[in-house]
Amino acid sequence: MASKTQKTKTIVVVEDDATYLHLWTKLIREAGISHPFPFSNAKEALQFLKKTKADLLISDVLMPQTNGYELALSARTLHPKLEILLTTGYETDLSRYDLKGLRCHLLHKPYHNLNDVCLLLKKLILGENVFEEMDEDSFSENIDNPDVTEWTL
Q1: What is the CATH number of domain 4-151?
Q2: Distance CA 125, CA 143 (A)
Q3: Which of 49, 52, 71, 152 is 20 to 30 A from 37, comparing alpha carbons?
Q4: What are phi and psi of 70, to 5 degrees?
Q5: Which sequence spans correspond to the domains of the chain?
Q6: Which residues in the chain come in under a pLDDT of 70?
Q7: Cα(38)–Cα(23) distance, rounded to whole angstroms?
Q8: Per-residue model confidence as pLDDT tens digits over 117-132
């Protein structure tokens, strides 16, 4: 059973692929958050974040209009303590982006182990050490952006 603390967390999901948006919404509900806030575009999500304090932002990187990095940087400015999990299905050269101070996680698609994805999600929601119980081969620090932890789960 989910704790009261979990139920009061505000989780924002931004994904233009309906399948992944549905998957994240389902995983968040299974983690004990009864009302995640799903968006199919970054502009709507940013408007929501300007009005609402969020605890966790999960966003795809490549989306029309505003990419996930831009959204994450804007969200970090609005909510400095916000946990951020970005997802991408592409090899990403982070050196082309100015991500100083972003402090986020980058999860590569496709997901191979949903149990590990759920564990990472739960730890982000609860503010726990995300590296504990994870296989050391599943994460790495990005050389160009040491505040970005890359995950392959």
Answers
A1: 3.40.50.2300
A2: 26
A3: 152
A4: -60, -45
A5: 4-151
A6: 1-7, 92-98
A7: 11
A8: 999 999 999 999 999 9
